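Design job #97: recover the sequence.
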C-alpha cells in the first residue's frame, strides 16, 4: 500500500468557500483520461470518483474528461504540473525526464506474472518509485493502474518469434524496447499511435506491440490477423496526482484522495486483467485473429541478453535486479 505523507504545514489552511447553510462548497477534481470511459482505466476513474465522494461526504467530486479531451499523455503531464489537471494514469516513460527509474516498469519480461506485478507495485519497490517521484517532480504517485499483457500484432504469419526477419515494427522510441525487438529480428519504426491503423493498411509497418483490449478497440485485427502471444510486458500506468492541487487540500481531504486512489488502483487492475482474457477470446472468436503461441523462454533469453547493457547504461539494473528477485 502506497503511503502519502501530508504536505500541509502546521498552520491554518483555508478550507474553501462556505455555503449559507454552513456546509463546505463541493470542490471538483479534474481527471484526464486518454481513452473512453468504458475502458478499464475509465472504470477505474469512475470508481475513484464514487469513493472520493463517499469518503468526503460529497465535499470532493471528480469530473472525468475522456477520449483525450485534455490532450495526449505529454500535454496531460504538463497540465498536472501546472495544476490544470489533478489526476491521470500515465505511461512510466512520460515522467522519465524527472524520474528515469520509472522506465524500469516497462522492461520486457521483467514481471513473471500478474501476481508478481501486483506484489511489486504494492510493495517496497512501488513505494520507493513513488517517493522518488514526489522528491524530484511536481506530481505524486498514489497507486498503479495496469495489469494487461502486451503481445505482438503481426500482418505476416510468424512461425518463429525469436527471428522476426526484419519485421517492420511500430515501437515507442525507448532504448529498452528498441534493443529488445532488434534482438529478435524486428526493425523498429516510429509511428504515432493514432496513425497505426493506416500505417498497417499502407504497409508502412508490419506489426506492433499492444494489449488485447486496445487491439480490439482500435480494430487492428482488420489489418493484422496474427496475435503472437509473446506476453513480454505487463502494462503499468502510475496513477499520478498534481502536487499543486494536493497541497491545496485539507489534511482530511488529502487522506481521502490517497485512500480513494489506492482502492481505485486495486479495483481497476482486476478489471483490466479480466478485460485482457475476454478481449483475447473475442479477437479470436469474433474477429478471426490467429492466436499464435510463442517460445517465450527462448525469446526471453535473447531479449534479456540484449537489454542487460541498456539497463546498466540507463542506471536501471539495480531496480531490475530487485524486481526479478522479489
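Job complete. Output follows.
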Amino acid at each position: 500500500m502506497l503511503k502519502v505523507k501530508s504536505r500541509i504545514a502546521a498552520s491554518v489552511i483555508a478550507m474553501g468557500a462556505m455555503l449559507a447553510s454552513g456546509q463546505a462548497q463541493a470542490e471538483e477534481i479534474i481527471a484526464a483520461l486518454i481513452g473512453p470511459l468504458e475502458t478499464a482505466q475509465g472504470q477505474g476513474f469512475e470508481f475513484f470518483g464514487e469513493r472520493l465522494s463517499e469518503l468526503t461526504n460529497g465535499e470532493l467530486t471528480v469530473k472525468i474528461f475522456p477520449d483525450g479531451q485534455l490532450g495526449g499523455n505529454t500535454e496531460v503531464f504538463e497540465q498536472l504540473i501546472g495544476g490544470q489537471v489533478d489526476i491521470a494514469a500515465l505511461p512510466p516513460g512520460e515522467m522519465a525526464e524527472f524520474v528515469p527509474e520509472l522506465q524500469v516498469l516497462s522492461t520486457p519480461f521483467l514481471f513473471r506474472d500478474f501476481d508478481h506485478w501486483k506484489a511489486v507495485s504494492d510493495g517496497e519497490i512501488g513505494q520507493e518509485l513513488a517517493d522518488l517521484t514526489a522528491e524530484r517532480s511536481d506530481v505524486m504517485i498514489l497507486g498503479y493502474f495496469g495489469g494487461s499483457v502486451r503481445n505482438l500484432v503481426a500482418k505476416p504469419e510468424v512461425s518463429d518469434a525469436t527471428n522476426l526477419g526484419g519485421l517492420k515494427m511500430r515501437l515507442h522510441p525507448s532504448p529498452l524496447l528498441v534493443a529488445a525487438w532488434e534482438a529478435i529480428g524486428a526493425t523498429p519504426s516510429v509511428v504515432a499511435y493514432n496513425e497505426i491503423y493506416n500505417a498497417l493498411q499502407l504497409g508502412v509497418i508490419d506489426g506492433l506491440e499492444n494489449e488485447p483490449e486496445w487491439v480490439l478497440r482500435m480494430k487492428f485485427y482488420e489489418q493484422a490477423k496474427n496475435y503472437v502471444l509473446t506476453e513480454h510486458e505487463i502494462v503499468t500506468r502510475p496513477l499520478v496526482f498534481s502536487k499543486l492541487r494536493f497541497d491545496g487540500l485539507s489534511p482530511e481531504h488529502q487522506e481521502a484522495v490517497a485512500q480513494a486512489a489506492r482502492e481505485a488502483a486495486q479495483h481497476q487492475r482486476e478489471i483490466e486483467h479480466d478485460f485482457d482474457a475476454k478481449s483475447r477470446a473475442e479477437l479470436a472468436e469474433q474477429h478471426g485473429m490467429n492466436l499464435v503461441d510463442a517460445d517465450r523462454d527462448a525469446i526471453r533469453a535473447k531479449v534479456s541478453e540484449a537489454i542487460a547493457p541498456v539497463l546498466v547504461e540507463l542506471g536501471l539494473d539495480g531496480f531490475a535486479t530487485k524486481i526479478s528477485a522479489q
